[in-house]
Design goal:
The complex is a heterodimer.
Chain A: E1 9-18, E2 25-35, E3 40-44, H1 51-58, E4 67-76, E5 79-80, H2 86-92, E6 97-100, H3 104-107, H4 114-124, H5 133-143, H6 149-152, H7 162-174, E7 180-184, H8 192-209, E8 212-217, H9 220-226, E9 229-234, E10 237-243, H10 244-249, H11 254-262, E11 281-294, E12 303-316, E13 320-324, H12 331-338, E14 346-351, E15 354-355, H13 361-370, E16 371-374, H14 388-398, H15 408-418, H16 435-447, E17 453-457, H17 465-482, E18 485-490, H18 493-499, E19 502-507, E20 510-516, H19 517-522, H20 527-534
Parallel strand pairs in A: 3-8, 3-9, 6-7, 7-8, 13-18, 13-19, 16-17, 17-18
Antiparallel strand pairs in A: 1-2, 1-4, 4-5, 9-10, 11-12, 11-14, 14-15, 19-20
Chain B: H1 2-29, H2 35-38, H3 45-54, H4 61-73, H5 87-122, H6 127-141, H7 144-158, H8 171-200, H9 203-210, H10 215-243, H11 247-252, H12 258-267, H13 271-299
Helix pairs in contact in B: 1-13, 5-6, 5-8, 5-10, 5-13, 6-8, 7-8, 8-10, 9-10, 10-13, 12-13
Classes of the chains: A alpha/beta, B mainly alpha.
């Protein structure tokens, strides 16, 4: 579509080091790429692959030191970006090159209104002269789809939803119609339905203005929806580049192939069909509710917020029940109540016949031993000053009757091997492991007390795609070997399809649909489930382009 | 919401003030018998008893205390033994001198600390940054009485440029204020610099850079506003310290403030005046704390009470 165009940005042989106490760490190693007007270039790679660093250099956002641009040329529209002074850089940033980021809440200043922050773009480039800035900001907010911009302009970032905050960031970025918009994981922090809307908005804006879009992502689905061309990065190097469809259908490099293979097959059914589980009932939840009282305002009465509203379900021994829903749907509240971390407002939950909410003292302790949890952020859920041996044996310290002390060491080694780690890892500390390894340690800790049920709350969401599948495979292997049951909470539909036997769909605290996994994905009945499933994006090359979209 | 908050705070503070006054009431009476100070050494037993009766000191201590509380309710804070007039009047008369001193010292030191700290944080590790760190560390850790005495020695006795003590001319203000400023300035520079450095590394600063904002506006517009909360917390704490009467500095420079009055009254066993000075400063500290809470709300839209 843009083959005849000359590149607006051309990067050649870029190498960036980060100086640390020891040897400098090479973050970007001889990377070359270009992007043409109106084109979308997706830079695909997992965390630490150097994708953000290479685009950060384009905008001069990498602090030197500790950053060190060793070599390379960055040519933007005939200007060499690498020897630009501060004033020259300022003239380009925000006006001709703009950027949006992953976590809009952190990237917006909490103490200023969004209107003021958008207006700053005009003011920084003396573009306020052609009319009242406020009107222009309202127009922009309207364009990016923020309802009631006339009043919302005076709101603060924390008063917006995640998707709206990203729209504010986009408004800021497109204010002066830049030639290039760099989007660094723009939808990673958002729910799947919101993600689809944001991607659509970016696509529309690109068609309107003809800007080039550089999109950084680790998400293959996002890449498929957006990309004209793709470069795949791994370990600071570009390992593959080409037209999007070619990279997806015919991956060349071994790393790309591994990445593609890691994606749960979204449309072609699950990979490990399992026979229906017909064990005894392990967990029976009846009419579970959790309500919070919210302060609405100065004189209004308090509002009751139903985080979990009359939820009932059954989990059989050996079964995996997926709970899916977007953020705020009440999934995690259920997990927290079942683990007795929060108290319910009403309802019962029978675990092997006993009502969890009435357990006290010894009985509660015994229950805690039989039910374990794996959290989203393995790093946050481990004491950084404890080594792996201490972390894994902690359940043994708490529940003294499991094993005599003399056998703890052997058990730790056994557990480490069970989750695919090595005996020598026991003496290291959490920060010495990768994200996937840490989650393995968290699983080993959960297994230490021989539990019957493991509650996984977004247990793989923070991990890279290729690691996600490894952890899921580990969990499903353990399910077979140890006869475990899982309550698997996630917002990620492909993951739940690959792993759960049955799925519960939640919206606003209520269960809107429950079914066997395959039946649910094949024929979703509830409109919300249908919307959720259709929000999973479709590859760009399968969508017929409207004729007028050619620039 | 806000008024309710202030109401609750007032109520809680009233309880702690009453507790404080109780403690002070009994502690002052441990210092000894005032009649030993106020009457001639050879005065007769009858004269001593008459003095005690006149000032209610002949009653058992719990009766004295109940009388005191009762009088408090009718806003009678007792008589000064030394000056023979209302004790609260004596306290309120001395207070403005302290307030002026505290206000000028804290305003100047905060302003200077914000400017120097922000500039140092903008270029961490630079010569300017290291110089500022050195000065602030010295300021924060040098005892004020030592600086005060050396100051008098050098500038008043040695060069004769400044008066040694007392009030009157503008020159009288210089040494007390400079000495009072040193510690707050030193501490606040460290706080401003530290929070600024972490705020400058935060994501929204990156956004501001990506917008192409001028460096000075990023530092003083975006970063500073976010760094102010911890600065205000520390500055407020230091202010209460100064209102409390810069006892040492006021004594050395003969500044007729509440700190000096407190020390004098304790030495002279002028119980009612001691109690009144404590009451006045406690209320002032309460007001400063409320003001700080309101400043939080003004500075950070996420904070609501």
């Amino acid at each position: 579509m843009t083959g005849a165009n000359t590149p607006i940005l051309q990067i050649d042989d870029l190498t960036v080091d980060f100086l640390s106490e020891g040897d400098p760490v090479r973050a970007v190693d001889g990377v070359s790429f270009h992007v043409c007007p109106g084109e979308t270039l997706v830079i695909l790679g997992e965390s630490g692959s150097g994708k953000s660093v290479s685009t950060g250099t384009v905008m001069g956002l990498i602090d030197c030191p500790p950053g060190d641009i060793v070599s390379g040329s960055l040519i933007f529209d005939g200007t060499d970006l690498s020897n630009l002074d501060e004033e020259g850089r300022r003239g380009l940033n925000g006006r001709r090159i703009a950027m949006i980021f992953q976590d809009p809440l952190a990237y917006l200043n909490p103490v200023y209104t969004v209107g003021r922050q958008i207006a700053e773009v005009f003011e920084s480039h003396d573009a306020g002269a052609e009319g009242p800035v406020r009107d222009k900001v309202i127009q922009l907010m309207q364009r990016v789809g923020i309802p009631e911009p006339e009043t919302r302009i005076d709101y603060y970032p924390h008063q917006f939803s995640g998707g709206q905050r990203q729209r504010v960031m986009i408004a800021m970025a497109i204010a002066l119609k830049p030639d290039i918009l760099i989007a660094d994981e723009p939808t990673t922090a958002l729910d799947v339905s919101v993600q689809a809307q944001i991607l659509e908005l970016l696509g529309d804006l690109q068609r309107e203005t003809g800007m080039a879009l550089i999109m950084i992502t680790h998400d293959l689905e996002v890449a498929a929806v957006m990309a004209d061309r793709i470069i795949v990065m791994n370990g600071g190097k570009v390992v593959e580049s080409g037209k999007a469809e070619e990279v997806f259908t015919n991956p060349d490099h071994a790393y790309t192939r591994r990445l593609m293979a890691a994606v749960p097959h979204g449309s072609s059914g699950r990979r490990h069909p399992r026979p229906a589980v017909e064990g005894e009932t392990l967990l029976q939840v009846e009419n579970l509710s959790k309500h919070y009282m919210l302060n609405a305002g100065l004189f209004s009465p308090k509002i009751e917020f139903k985080a979990v509203d009359d939820v009932s379900f059954v989990l059989r021994r050996g079964e995996t029940l997926g709970i899916v829903g977007e953020s705020g749907s009440g999934k995690s509240s259920i997990a927290r109540m079942l683990l007795r971390l929060n108290d319910p407002t009403s309802g019962r939950a029978l675990f092997a016949g006993d009502n969890i909410f009435q357990l006290e003292g010894k009985a509660l302790n015994g229950f805690r031993r039989r039910v374990q949890m794996v959290f989203q952020d393995p790093f946050g859920s481990m004491n950084p000053r404890m080594n792996v041996r201490a972390i894994i044996s902690e359940p043994l310290v708490i529940h003294r009757d499991i094993l005599p002390r003399a056998r703890w060491n052997d058990r730790v080694v056994e557990l480490l091997e069970l989750v695919g780690l090595k005996a020598e890892h026991a003496d290291r500390h959490p920060h010495q492991f990768s994200g996937g390894q840490r989650q393995r340690i968290a699983i080993a800790r959960a297994l230490a007390s021989d539990p019957e049920l493991i509650v996984c709350d977004e247990a793989v969401s923070a991990l890279d795609v290729s690691i996600q599948m490894q952890v899921i495979e580990l969990l499903s292997e353990l399910r077979q070997r140890l006869g475990l049951s899982y309550l698997f909470i996630t917002h990620d539909l492909p993951i739940v399809r690959a792993f759960a036997d049955r799925v519960l769909v939640m919206q606003n605290g209520r269960v809107v649909e429950e079914n066997e996994t395959e039946a649910l994905f094949a024929s979703p009945r509830h409109p919300y489930t249908q919307a959720l499933l259709s929000a999973v994006p479709k590859p760009k090359w399968t969508v017929v382009e409207p004729a007028d979209s050619v620039i | 919401m806000m008024l309710g908050y202030i109401g609750r705070r007032t109520y809680h503070s009233a309880i702690s003030v009453i507790g404080l006054l109780t403690l002070v009431f009994f502690l002052t009476r441990l210092t000894g018998d005032p009649s030993a100070l106020y009457l001639p050494l050879d005065s007769s037993l009858e004269a001593r008893e008459a003095f005690a009766r006149l000032n209610g000191l002949d009653q058992p201590i719990h009766v004295q205390f109940l009388d005191y509380l009762q009088n408090l309710l009718s806003l009678d804070f007792g008589q000064s033994l030394r000056q023979n007039r209302s004790a609260i009047e004596v306290a309120l008369e001395a207070f403005p001198a302290t307030l002026k001193l505290a206000f000028v010292a804290i305003t100047l030191s905060t302003t200077l600390a914000v400017i120097f700290g922000a500039l140092a944080a903008a270029r961490p590790g630079s010569l300017f940054d290291r110089a500022v760190s050195l000065i602030s560390l010295a300021g924060a850790s040098t005892p004020d009485f030592w600086i005060a005495i050396v100051g008098i020695l050098v500038f008043a006795v040695g060069f004769g440029m400044l008066p040694t003590s007392g009030t009157g001319t503008a020159l009288h203000w210089i040494m007390p204020i400079v000495v009072l400023m040193l510690r707050p300035f030193g501490l606040l520079v460290q706080v401003v610099r530290g929070t600024m450095i972490s705020v400058l590394a935060s994501p929204y600063i990156k956004t501001a850079r990506a917008k192409g904002m001028k460096r000075r506006r990023i530092i003083f517009g975006h970063a500073l506003r976010n760094s102010l909360l911890p600065v205000i917390t520390v500055a407020g704490d230091l202010t209460t310290g100064l209102i409390n009467g810069a006892v040492v500095v006021e004594t050395i420079f003969g500044w007729p403030g509440i700190g000096k009055l407190m020390i004098d009254s304790i030495i002279q066993r002028d119980f009612a005046v001691v109690q009144s000075t404590i009451l006045v400063t406690a209320i002032a500290i309460f007001i400063v704390n409320i003001a700080i809470d309101l400043l939080y709300v003004a500075l950070d839209p996420r904070i609501r009470y």
